[in-house]
């Protein structure tokens, strides 16, 4: 209003003057038509004058007066009362209302309508209508809704404002979090994907990882087991490191997490950004090699205080069970075995034939240990904001009783996000997240496997109500089943295994705008984790016959703090040169301590681990300590020219205490170019093409997730040695030190294209990447003659390369809208180089049925993917004595007709152990894909996604025992047709043990246990209904099902399985707690 | 910020602060003993007895038990690794203890113990694999890892050097808080064993005479006391690996468990774990019935000598050896109490008898040595008097030719020292290995090749400088 105007108009109509002023200023004229003559001519000559001066000049010789209300000028004949105009203005100060619809005319509920610069606001109801009081004509209304373009309307004289919201085509102006800053999506140069809240919470999940599964191309998420509370394994663009750290870095609201992420409440998520290529991750330097997942949690939004309540309840069941022998079948097979073994010398270990004749189904142990699981979750959040402060508080409670009896998980979350703007320049805030997790039944793995091999002749309980014991059966009757195998039902209920996990994560930050465009930000955060594990095995367990009950308790606490200091400069010059520069320095330290104690010999089972002093034999208590520190300098420059050409360069210089002083510091640079072709003049007017961008990047990142203190030769305490009764402490050198240890480093190249057509209703992204990780750290087996078995070395390199494609489409007409998206990723992993030796075996998988190659089932070998399965090729069974004697295994004295024919791979005519072995399978999928659809029609919504993993192999270690001799353990029903003479079977061994063979066989990985792990499943199906209720903003009820249908040839419980955490032994199924199918019913209420 | 990046590993003893004090020296020497234990808890009798015609591995007979030798057999590798771990620990002590500021006599003794233990480890290796890599410096980088095999002769030379070094430094006896450490007599006895393995009867005779002449050792009066877990480290026990059950650290053995009868009431675990050791029937039947046989090998319960075993019936896959019977082994944590006797005086007497006979024929002193053992072996009533019925069971030897005497000693060793890890090596050094095993018919045929074990497959893979023993594929 204080603007100065310049006018030179001679003899023009009064109406023309009003028009000119309105055109050149913010002022608007109001008058009653006919009150005065608009056609009379006037002359103005004003140079840089105030409005009053101009108007005084204009009306000088006329019988007209005026009043200025803010930007509104009321004009009237002098002395006349203009009640009409005033009334209108006063009315408009009261209330404004309207209806918000989408482009098809359907009402849009839940749109936030706020008066700009105030806390006055509301949200549209189910019918899309809103109304706001106390509006001034000059007020500006802001209409916003996720996925729609935000619109701003000046109220003016209107009393009704109806708005048509337009879909924000693929977030064309979306601002997303990148490391140490944010950026408009259009300006990105790297390979970055985002997932917003609706994708994760629409179908209700218990962890963020579960919600991310299938959502992002290039991110493979596997649920290795189905124990309640088990966290998924996340791998971005393949596996880089052989032995250490393939987990991506999680950054929550700018803070790098150090003690896990799975406790974060999925309901708090606003958006998730996944940084995949090195131009995006290099800003995280030595922590960036495995990709970065940036989580932004919800903040309060201007408007009415929002209360959201979200609750669901669900049931779970196992997806598949093994078809096992029943009691009669098993007892018959077991008797056959003991008849054959040593010519029946031990036949008394079998059930008498008369007893077998009376047997029926017996116990189906799988049915005994599986149940219908129950899962329920309740979430409450309250949020709001005014012009200075915004807040978001939430609480969540999850109770999950798993599909294996007595397995449980509880979780409680509480969090606060608070931000306050002290003035135009300074703002600060805090975020606090706490969680408590309790897990019960953590030894369920043994329960699941126990249920497979437990003899079906054994009842769950004896007649007197006590648990049946196979050991007692052996002692009392001499009837043998695996006597050291506890009753799995008893194990599930009586063997205690609990863990408790407490997380406290706090972050405090302040930012200050130094000058226009230059902002300083300081943050200090702490991440505290307290973890406790307890076990108790009661004295009456068979395994406790010597120890009489054993208990242990261990606690670890970790404290990690991070201080980050950044300066950000954002400026646009001459409208075409845009700069975004960030620089910073960070410091981080972590300390962990562990305390553990144990005891045995409990005269009573009442107190369990709650009072270790009851145990008469205390164990040796232990404590341990670890610490690491890191200091970093970082910087990044983003430049774009006319929104067409984009350049990004970043660098980080990290120093870490984990490495020796020679290799303590490392430098991680990156660079990227992008060209938004669609902004070029020759394409700008092409209507159908909304976006076409080409991207190219390179960067280097590191991995510092290696064991600590590898740069000193440790002397460890080993088992003491007694001289008579004098017990002496024994100490010996712990590991061979490698003075040349350095960082694992990954170079990554990326080329990508983004395409959006038809107003971005259809968009498409494709990326090709090539990653080479070198100086890989690996515990290399060394010749044991030096006294050590392994040494940590930087031994070689691994490459990952692949394509990722993503497509997204939106359609809407009338009351109907559809969003479809799909992605597919192809990753190829290969070991390029292993120094000194061309192969290493994977880890001992701890499966008692494998004794070859140090207990490994996998190998790491040059030219092959990491951790391929390694073993013998099974060529069926020897059928006749003659065939066997003339064959290549004749010298293997513990084989014979009815037993395995392993291929003589090198063709030298003799099968040799340790020599005739080869690659027998690959746990890496050929590709992973997901297709998601969501439909909305009026108040209904329906969404589903189909997730598939194709071309991976699974080593089903369970089958080794389930398809061999029935002497103590149960076997598959199919094993009834085992070899019993020429031509009777070429698959299942004779039910016997050849002379000269040790108890368990065939004690190896071989092709007969390798299965195709391909699966395609209906991962989620959700049907929801928005109940139109006037008094509340949202009431949605939905039913949602996970893993309802799985198409697979895999014979085990579930093809999504990986019993070991090591990436070098992935895809092994060894008695794992299976992933379940779930059906949930939920309600979401917003007030 | 360099200072910020220097992290103090508070919970680690490291090369920076170890080898400073007398206590460090003691702990590092105890470390050698501690790692030695693994081999004598299992492999020693698997190689020494189960691989021969006198014993089997119960129901789970495989590999060596059946005469099948493959370089991929994990057992060879675990043996190899264990022994070299002992050697590396000993090398570290020999290198680093001298610079510790401490009582010089004690320091000298500790270093001598390390030499003894290194010699023992090399002796175990050389008689099993032949020449092995000779490593006498602690491993601090990878140079030791790639050393090739030395000759058998070079390894024996090192063994004798080590034992000669320590035989005069080590004390003749220890106070009760040091019992279990090697004595001067132990060094001489081990030398005798090594000479005998090489076929050097002259030196065997000299060294056994030194042990016998020292008067430090004698046979226990009652044979049962040799194996009584309450009477370990006695007058007959020259060097034993120490196991202690019932502690919260696993210092116990699993030897009692391995040897215990598979009778379900005694040891039901073994039926599932399949780890029991039993006597081959042919061997059992070849021994004339006498007190020693009834005491140490039991074919049926109840047994007069083990009243605490109330179970009745056959022993299982064969008569069981009671030499390592710890009555408490099933009801106590931390393992069994039974020590493993590496060398006992009876072995020395028999070595003397054998060497004396080879050099001088069956002299009076040779007869005295063997008959001393037989006298105790029949003395059931512990009166130290040869009762007529006892003599009838196991008479003194006399009037044998040199060859008859030689065979009588071998025979006596089998009866006296069976299941103590000696038989395989006796068969090999006396040239009977192939003949005896093949004649027994209890296993596949063996050949001269099997006299030496194959170098473990994975070791050859890791160190290409290692050459496989003749007759084995890599």
Question: What are the defining features of this structure?
Answer:
heterodimer, A: mainly beta, Phage tail protein beta-alpha-beta fold, Immunoglobulin-like, 22-stranded antiparallel β-barrel, 5-stranded mixed β-sheet, elongated, B: 474 residues, mainly alpha, two-stranded antiparallel ribbon, two-stranded antiparallel sheet, 9 strands, globular
Description:
The complex is a heterodimer of chains A (1087) and B (474). Chain A is mainly β. Chain A has 15 helices and 57 strands. In chain A, the strands form 13 sheets. Chain A has a 22-stranded antiparallel beta barrel. In chain A, strand 38 and strand 39 (762-774) form a beta hairpin. The longest helix of chain A is centred in the N-terminal third of the chain and has 14 residues, at 327-340. The radius of gyration of chain A is 36 Å and the shape is elongated. The model of chain A has no long low-confidence stretch (mean pLDDT 87). By secondary structure, chain B is mainly α. Chain B folds into 3 domains: 19-172 and 433-469, Serine Threonine Protein Phosphatase 5, Tetratricopeptide repeat, CATH 1.25.40.390; 184-238 and 345-419, Alpha Horseshoe (Serine Threonine Protein Phosphatase 5, Tetratricopeptide repeat); 255-276 and 286-334, no CATH class. In chain B, 47% of the residues lie in helices and 5% in strands. Chain B is built from 19 helices and 9 strands. Chain B is globular. Classes of the chains: A mainly beta (1087), B mainly alpha (474). Chains A and B meet through helix 11, strand 30, strand 32, strand 36 and strand 37 of A and strand 1, helix 1, helix 3, helix 10 and helix 19 of B.
């Amino acid at each position: 209003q204080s603007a100065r105007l310049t006018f030179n108009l001679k003899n023009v109509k009064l109406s023309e003057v009003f028009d000119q002023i309105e055109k050149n200023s913010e002022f608007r004229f109001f008058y009653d038509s006919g009150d005065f003559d608009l056609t009379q001519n006037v002359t103005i000559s004003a140079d840089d004058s105030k409005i009053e001066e101009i108007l005084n000049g204009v009306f000088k010789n006329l019988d007209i007066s005026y009043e200025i209300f803010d930007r509104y000028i009321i004009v009237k004949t002098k002395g006349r009362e203009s009640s009409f105009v005033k009334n209108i203005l006063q009315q408009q100060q009261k209330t404004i209302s309207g209806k918000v619809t989408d482009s098809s005319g359907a009402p849009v509920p839940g749109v936030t309508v706020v008066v700009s610069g105030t806390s006055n606001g509301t949200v549209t109801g189910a019918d899309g209508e809103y109304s706001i009081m106390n509006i001034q004509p000059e007020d500006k209304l802001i209409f916003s809704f996720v996925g729609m373009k935000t619109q701003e309307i000046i109220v003016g004289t209107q009393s009704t404002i109806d708005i048509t919201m337009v879909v924000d085509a693929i977030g064309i102006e979306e601002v997303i979090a990148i490391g140490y800053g944010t950026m408009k999506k259009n300006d990105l140069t790297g390979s970055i994907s985002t997932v917003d809240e609706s994708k994760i919470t629409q179908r209700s999940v218990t962890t963020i990882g579960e919600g991310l599964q299938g959502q992002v191309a290039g991110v493979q998420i596997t649920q290795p087991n189905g124990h309640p509370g088990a966290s998924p394994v996340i791998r971005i663009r393949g596996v880089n490191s052989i032995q250490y750290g393939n987990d991506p870095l999680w950054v929550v609201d700018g803070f790098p997490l150090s003690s896990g992420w799975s406790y974060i409440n999925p309901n708090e998520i606003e958006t998730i950004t996944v940084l995949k290529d090195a131009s995006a991750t290099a800003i995280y330097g030595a922590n960036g090699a495995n990709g970065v997942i940036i989580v932004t949690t919800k903040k309060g939004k201007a408007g009415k205080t929002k209360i959201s309540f979200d609750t669901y309840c669900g049931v779970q069941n196992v997806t598949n069970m093994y078809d096992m022998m029943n009691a009669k079948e098993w007892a018959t097979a077991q008797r056959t075995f003991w008849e054959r073994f040593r010519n029946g010398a031990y036949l008394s270990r079998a059930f008498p034939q008369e007893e077998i004749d009376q047997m029926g189904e017996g116990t189906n142990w799988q049915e005994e240990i599986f149940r219908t699981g129950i899962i329920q979750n309740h979430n409450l959040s309250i949020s709001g904001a005014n012009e200075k402060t915004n807040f978001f508080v939430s609480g969540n409670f999850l109770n999950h009783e798993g599909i294996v009896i007595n397995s449980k998980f509880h979780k409680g979350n509480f969090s606060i996000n608070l931000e306050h703007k002290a003035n135009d320049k300074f703002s600060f805030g805090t975020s606090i997240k706490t969680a408590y997790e309790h897990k019960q039944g953590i030894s369920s793995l043994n329960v699941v496997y126990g249920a497979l091999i437990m003899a079906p002749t054994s009842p769950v309980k004896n007649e007197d109500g006590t648990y049946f014991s196979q050991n007692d059966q052996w002692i009392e009757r001499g009837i043998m089943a695996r006597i050291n195998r506890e009753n799995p039902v008893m194990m599930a209920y009586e063997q205690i295994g609990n863990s408790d996990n407490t997380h406290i994560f706090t972050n405090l930050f302040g930012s200050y705008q130094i000058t226009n465009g230059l902002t300083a930000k300081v943050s200090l955060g702490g991440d505290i984790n307290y973890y406790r594990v307890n076990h108790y095995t009661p004295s009456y367990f068979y395994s406790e016959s010597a120890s009489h009950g054993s208990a242990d308790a261990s606690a670890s606490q970790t404290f990690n703090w991070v201080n980050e200091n950044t300066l950000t400069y954002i400026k646009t010059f001459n409208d075409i040169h845009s700069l975004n520069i960030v620089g910073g320095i960070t410091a981080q330290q972590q300390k962990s301590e562990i305390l553990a104690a144990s005891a045995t010999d409990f005269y009573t089972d009442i107190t369990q681990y709650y009072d270790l002093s009851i145990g008469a034999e205390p164990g040796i208590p232990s404590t341990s300590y670890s610490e690491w520190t890191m200091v970093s300098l970082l910087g990044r420059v983003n430049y774009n020219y006319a929104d067409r050409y984009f350049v990004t360069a970043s660098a980080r210089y990290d120093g870490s205490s984990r490495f020796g002083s020679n290799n303590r510091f490392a430098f991680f640079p990156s660079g990227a170019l992008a060209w938004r072709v669609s902004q070029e003049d020759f394409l700008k007017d092409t209507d159908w093409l909304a976006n076409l961008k080409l991207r190219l990047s390179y960067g280097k990142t590191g991995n510092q997730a290696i064991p600590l203190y590898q740069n000193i030769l440790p002397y460890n305490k080993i088992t003491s040695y007694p001289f008579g009764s004098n017990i002496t402490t024994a100490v010996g050198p712990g590991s061979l030190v490698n003075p040349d240890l350095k960082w694992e480093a990954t170079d990554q190249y990326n080329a990508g294209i983004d395409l959006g057509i038809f107003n971005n209703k259809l968009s498409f992204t494709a990326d090709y990447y090539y990653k080479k990780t070198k100086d890989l750290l690996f515990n290399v087996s060394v010749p044991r003659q030096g006294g050590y078995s392994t040494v940590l070395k930087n031994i070689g390199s691994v490459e990952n390369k692949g394509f990722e494609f993503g497509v997204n489409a939106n359609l809407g007409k009338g009351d109907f809208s559809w969003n479809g998206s799909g992605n597919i990723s192809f990753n190829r992993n290969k070991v390029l180089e292993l120094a000194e030796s061309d192969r290493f075996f994977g880890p001992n998988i701890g499966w008692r049925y494998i004794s070859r190659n140090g207990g490994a089932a996998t190998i790491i070998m040059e030219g092959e993917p990491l951790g391929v399965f390694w073993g013998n090729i099974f060529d069926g069974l020897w059928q006749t004595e003659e065939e066997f004697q003339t064959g290549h295994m004749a010298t293997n004295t513990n084989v014979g007709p009815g037993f395995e024919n392993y291929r003589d791979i090198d063709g030298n005519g003799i099968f040799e152990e340790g020599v005739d072995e080869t690659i027998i399978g690959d746990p890496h999928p050929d590709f992973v894909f997901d297709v998601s659809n969501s439909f909305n029609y009026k108040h209904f919504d329906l969404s589903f996604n189909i997730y598939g993993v194709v071309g991976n192999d699974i080593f089903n270690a369970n089958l080794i025992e389930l398809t061999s001799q029935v002497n103590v353990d149960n076997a598959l029903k199919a094993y009834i047709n085992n070899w019993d003479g020429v031509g009777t079977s070429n698959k299942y061994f004779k039910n016997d043990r050849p002379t000269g063979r040790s108890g368990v066989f065939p004690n190896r990985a071989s092709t007969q246990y390798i299965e195709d792990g391909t699966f395609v499943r209906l991962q989620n199906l959700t049907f929801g209904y928005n109940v139109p209720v006037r008094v509340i903003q949202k009431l949605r009820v939905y039913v949602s099902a996970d893993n309802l249908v799985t198409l697979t040839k895999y014979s085990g419980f579930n093809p999504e399985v990986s019993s070991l955490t090591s990436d070098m032994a992935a895809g092994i199924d060894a008695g794992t707690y299976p992933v379940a199918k779930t059906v949930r019913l939920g309600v979401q209420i917003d007030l | 910020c360099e200072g910020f990046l220097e992290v103090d590993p508070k919970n680690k003893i490291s090369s920076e602060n170890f080898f400073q004090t007398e206590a460090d020296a003691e702990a590092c020497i105890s470390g050698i003993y501690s790692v030695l234990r693994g081999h004598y808890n299992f492999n020693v009798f698997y190689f020494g007895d189960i691989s021969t015609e006198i014993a089997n591995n119960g129901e789970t007979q495989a590999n060596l038990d059946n005469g099948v030798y493959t370089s991929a057999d994990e057992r060879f590798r675990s043996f190899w690794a264990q022994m070299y771990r002992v050697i590396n620990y000993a090398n570290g002590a020999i290198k680093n203890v001298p610079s510790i500021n401490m009582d010089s006599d004690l320091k000298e003794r500790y270093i001598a113990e390390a030499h003894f233990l290194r010699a023992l480890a090399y002796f175990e290796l050389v008689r099993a694999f032949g020449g092995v890599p000779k490593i006498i410096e602690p491993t601090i980088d990878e140079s030791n890892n790639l050393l090739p095999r030395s000759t058998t002769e070079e390894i024996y030379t090192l063994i004798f050097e080590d034992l000669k070094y320590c035989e005069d430094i080590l004390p003749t006896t220890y106070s009760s808080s040091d019992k279990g450490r090697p004595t001067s007599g132990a060094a001489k006895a081990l030398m005798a064993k090594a000479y005998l393995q090489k076929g050097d009867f002259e030196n065997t005779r000299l060294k056994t005479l030194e042990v016998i002449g020292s008067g430090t050792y004698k046979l226990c009066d009652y044979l049962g006391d040799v194996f009584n877990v309450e009477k370990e480290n006695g007058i007959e026990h020259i060097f034993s690996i120490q196991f202690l059950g019932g502690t919260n650290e696993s210092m116990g053995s699993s030897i009692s468990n391995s040897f215990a009868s598979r009778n379900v009431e005694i040891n039901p675990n073994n039926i599932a774990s399949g780890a029991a050791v039993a006597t081959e029937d042919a061997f059992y039947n070849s021994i004339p019935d006498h007190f020693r046989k009834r005491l140490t090998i039991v074919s049926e319960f109840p047994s007069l000598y083990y009243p605490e075993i109330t179970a009745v019936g056959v022993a299982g896959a064969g008569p069981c050896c009671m030499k390592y019977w710890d009555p408490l082994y099933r009801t106590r944590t931390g393992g069994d109490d039974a020590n493993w006797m590496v060398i006992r005086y009876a072995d020395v007497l028999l070595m003397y008898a054998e060497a004396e006979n080879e050099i001088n024929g069956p002299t009076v002193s040779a007869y005295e040595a063997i008959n001393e053992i037989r006298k105790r072996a029949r003395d059931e009533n512990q009166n130290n008097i040869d009762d007529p019925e006892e003599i009838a069971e196991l008479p003194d030897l006399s009037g044998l030719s040199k060859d008859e005497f030689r065979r009588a000693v071998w025979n006596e060793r089998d009866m006296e020292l069976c299941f103590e890890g000696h038989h395989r090596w006796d068969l090999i050094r006396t040239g009977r290995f192939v003949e005896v095993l093949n004649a027994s018919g209890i296993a596949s045929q063996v050949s001269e090749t099997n006299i030496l074990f194959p170098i473990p497959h994975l070791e050859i893979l890791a160190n290409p400088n290692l050459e496989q023993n003749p007759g084995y594929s890599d």
